[in-house]
Design a protein that fits this description.
The protein has about 190 residues and is α/β, with parallel strands linked by helices. The chain has one domain: Vaccinia Virus protein VP39 (Rossmann fold), CATH 3.40.50.150. About 25% of the residues lie in helices and about 25% in strands. Strands 3-2-1-4-5-7-6 form a seven-stranded mixed β-sheet, sandwiched between helices.
Protein backbone atom coordinates (compact mmCIF):
# COMPACT_ATOMS: atom_id res chain seq x y z
CA UNK A 1 0.00 0.00 0.00
CA UNK A 2 1.24 3.51 -0.76
CA UNK A 3 0.36 7.17 -0.73
CA UNK A 4 -0.83 8.01 -4.25
CA UNK A 5 -0.70 11.81 -4.30
CA UNK A 6 0.64 14.93 -2.64
CA UNK A 7 3.89 15.52 -0.78
CA UNK A 8 4.25 11.87 0.32
CA UNK A 9 3.38 10.44 -3.09
CA UNK A 10 4.94 7.01 -3.55
CA UNK A 11 5.72 6.49 0.15
CA UNK A 12 4.83 3.03 1.34
CA UNK A 13 2.58 2.62 4.35
CA UNK A 14 2.27 -0.53 6.38
CA UNK A 15 -0.79 -2.64 5.87
CA UNK A 16 -2.47 -5.19 8.13
CA UNK A 17 -1.00 -8.65 8.39
CA UNK A 18 -4.33 -10.28 9.25
CA UNK A 19 -7.75 -10.35 7.55
CA UNK A 20 -9.55 -8.32 10.24
CA UNK A 21 -8.77 -5.00 8.54
CA UNK A 22 -9.72 -4.31 4.94
CA UNK A 23 -7.41 -1.70 3.41
CA UNK A 24 -8.81 0.89 1.03
CA UNK A 25 -7.57 -0.03 -2.43
CA UNK A 26 -5.48 2.51 -4.35
CA UNK A 27 -7.96 2.62 -7.25
CA UNK A 28 -10.85 3.46 -4.91
CA UNK A 29 -8.76 5.99 -3.00
CA UNK A 30 -7.62 7.70 -6.20
CA UNK A 31 -11.20 7.85 -7.49
CA UNK A 32 -12.44 9.39 -4.23
CA UNK A 33 -9.83 12.14 -4.38
CA UNK A 34 -10.48 12.80 -8.07
CA UNK A 35 -14.16 13.33 -7.29
CA UNK A 36 -13.40 15.58 -4.29
CA UNK A 37 -11.02 17.72 -6.34
CA UNK A 38 -12.96 17.88 -9.62
CA UNK A 39 -16.68 17.46 -8.91
CA UNK A 40 -19.04 20.38 -9.36
CA UNK A 41 -21.23 18.93 -6.57
CA UNK A 42 -18.45 19.06 -3.97
CA UNK A 43 -16.82 22.40 -3.27
CA UNK A 44 -13.79 21.41 -1.19
CA UNK A 45 -10.08 21.81 -1.65
CA UNK A 46 -8.02 19.53 0.58
CA UNK A 47 -5.69 22.32 1.65
CA UNK A 48 -5.98 22.93 5.43
CA UNK A 49 -9.08 20.76 5.96
CA UNK A 50 -10.04 18.91 9.12
CA UNK A 51 -10.81 15.22 8.55
CA UNK A 52 -12.51 12.62 10.73
CA UNK A 53 -11.60 9.06 9.73
CA UNK A 54 -14.01 6.58 11.36
CA UNK A 55 -13.07 2.88 11.31
CA UNK A 56 -9.68 4.18 10.20
CA UNK A 57 -7.80 0.88 10.16
CA UNK A 58 -4.18 1.56 9.29
CA UNK A 59 -4.92 5.14 8.21
CA UNK A 60 -4.75 4.90 4.43
CA UNK A 61 -7.47 7.51 3.78
CA UNK A 62 -6.41 9.99 6.46
CA UNK A 63 -2.72 9.80 5.59
CA UNK A 64 -3.59 10.42 1.95
CA UNK A 65 -5.51 13.53 3.06
CA UNK A 66 -2.50 14.84 5.00
CA UNK A 67 -0.27 14.19 2.00
CA UNK A 68 -2.62 16.33 -0.09
CA UNK A 69 -2.63 19.25 2.34
CA UNK A 70 -5.20 18.52 5.06
CA UNK A 71 -4.40 20.23 8.36
CA UNK A 72 -5.49 17.61 10.88
CA UNK A 73 -6.83 14.07 10.93
CA UNK A 74 -8.70 12.46 13.80
CA UNK A 75 -8.54 8.67 13.53
CA UNK A 76 -11.04 6.49 15.40
CA UNK A 77 -10.35 2.75 15.46
CA UNK A 78 -10.89 0.10 18.11
CA UNK A 79 -8.89 -2.84 16.74
CA UNK A 80 -5.55 -2.85 18.59
CA UNK A 81 -3.53 -4.46 15.76
CA UNK A 82 -4.72 -1.79 13.32
CA UNK A 83 -3.90 0.94 15.88
CA UNK A 84 -0.32 -0.36 16.17
CA UNK A 85 0.16 -0.18 12.39
CA UNK A 86 -1.57 3.21 12.18
CA UNK A 87 0.76 4.58 14.85
CA UNK A 88 3.81 3.25 12.99
CA UNK A 89 2.56 4.81 9.74
CA UNK A 90 2.10 8.21 11.41
CA UNK A 91 5.55 8.06 13.00
CA UNK A 92 7.24 6.95 9.75
CA UNK A 93 5.79 10.00 7.96
CA UNK A 94 6.61 12.29 10.92
CA UNK A 95 2.97 13.38 11.27
CA UNK A 96 2.35 13.11 15.03
CA UNK A 97 1.46 16.82 15.24
CA UNK A 98 -1.22 16.50 12.55
CA UNK A 99 -2.89 13.33 13.79
CA UNK A 100 -4.95 12.29 16.79
CA UNK A 101 -5.84 8.67 17.44
CA UNK A 102 -8.73 7.50 19.60
CA UNK A 103 -8.82 3.78 20.29
CA UNK A 104 -12.53 3.48 20.72
CA UNK A 105 -15.62 1.93 19.18
CA UNK A 106 -16.99 4.43 16.64
CA UNK A 107 -20.55 3.92 17.88
CA UNK A 108 -19.58 4.64 21.49
CA UNK A 109 -17.21 7.50 20.66
CA UNK A 110 -20.02 10.00 20.15
CA UNK A 111 -21.64 9.05 23.46
CA UNK A 112 -18.58 10.17 25.42
CA UNK A 113 -18.64 13.70 26.78
CA UNK A 114 -14.83 13.59 27.04
CA UNK A 115 -14.32 14.41 23.37
CA UNK A 116 -14.35 18.06 22.38
CA UNK A 117 -14.34 17.74 18.61
CA UNK A 118 -13.90 20.47 16.08
CA UNK A 119 -16.13 20.63 13.06
CA UNK A 120 -14.88 18.56 10.17
CA UNK A 121 -14.76 19.24 6.44
CA UNK A 122 -14.73 15.55 5.53
CA UNK A 123 -15.97 12.62 7.58
CA UNK A 124 -14.92 9.28 6.13
CA UNK A 125 -16.72 6.09 7.20
CA UNK A 126 -15.17 2.80 6.19
CA UNK A 127 -16.84 0.24 8.48
CA UNK A 128 -16.61 -3.51 8.01
CA UNK A 129 -18.88 -4.56 5.17
CA UNK A 130 -20.91 -6.61 7.69
CA UNK A 131 -21.77 -3.46 9.67
CA UNK A 132 -25.25 -2.11 8.92
CA UNK A 133 -25.80 0.55 11.61
CA UNK A 134 -24.43 3.31 9.38
CA UNK A 135 -27.57 5.44 9.71
CA UNK A 136 -27.02 5.49 13.48
CA UNK A 137 -23.56 6.99 12.96
CA UNK A 138 -24.90 9.56 10.51
CA UNK A 139 -27.53 10.58 13.09
CA UNK A 140 -24.84 10.91 15.77
CA UNK A 141 -22.71 13.05 13.44
CA UNK A 142 -25.68 15.34 12.80
CA UNK A 143 -26.76 15.45 16.47
CA UNK A 144 -23.24 16.45 17.51
CA UNK A 145 -23.08 19.02 14.67
CA UNK A 146 -19.50 18.12 13.75
CA UNK A 147 -19.83 18.37 9.95
CA UNK A 148 -19.12 21.84 8.60
CA UNK A 149 -21.84 23.45 6.52
CA UNK A 150 -20.16 22.70 3.18
CA UNK A 151 -18.58 19.48 4.47
CA UNK A 152 -19.13 15.99 3.10
CA UNK A 153 -19.55 12.51 4.47
CA UNK A 154 -17.96 9.74 2.42
CA UNK A 155 -19.05 6.16 3.03
CA UNK A 156 -17.21 3.12 1.63
CA UNK A 157 -19.36 -0.03 1.27
CA UNK A 158 -19.50 -3.25 -0.75
CA UNK A 159 -21.12 -2.60 -4.14
CA UNK A 160 -23.95 -5.06 -3.40
CA UNK A 161 -24.79 -3.35 -0.12
CA UNK A 162 -28.45 -2.26 -0.11
CA UNK A 163 -28.00 0.19 2.77
CA UNK A 164 -30.75 2.82 2.70
CA UNK A 165 -29.48 6.03 4.25
CA UNK A 166 -31.34 8.49 2.04
CA UNK A 167 -33.50 9.65 4.98
CA UNK A 168 -30.38 10.49 6.99
CA UNK A 169 -28.05 11.84 4.33
CA UNK A 170 -28.42 14.13 1.33
CA UNK A 171 -26.78 11.89 -1.29
CA UNK A 172 -24.63 13.90 -3.70
CA UNK A 173 -23.02 11.06 -5.64
CA UNK A 174 -22.74 7.26 -5.64
CA UNK A 175 -19.89 5.58 -7.49
CA UNK A 176 -18.92 1.93 -7.94
CA UNK A 177 -15.29 0.86 -8.30
CA UNK A 178 -14.75 -2.90 -8.61
CA UNK A 179 -16.29 -4.43 -5.47
CA UNK A 180 -16.62 -1.04 -3.76
CA UNK A 181 -19.43 1.47 -3.60
CA UNK A 182 -18.60 4.99 -2.44
CA UNK A 183 -21.38 7.30 -1.29
CA UNK A 184 -20.84 11.06 -1.03
CA UNK A 185 -23.34 13.12 0.92
CA UNK A 186 -23.99 15.85 3.46
Amino acid sequence: MRIIGGKFKGKRILQPIDKNTRPLRDLVKESIFNLIEHSKKISLKLDKLYILDLFSGTGSFGLECISRGAKEIVFIENYSNAIKILTKNIISLNLKENCKIFQEDCFLFFNSKNHQLKKFDIIFLDPPFKEYKISLLIKKIKENKILKQNGIIIIHRHKKDQLDISDDLNILEVRNYGLSKVIFGN
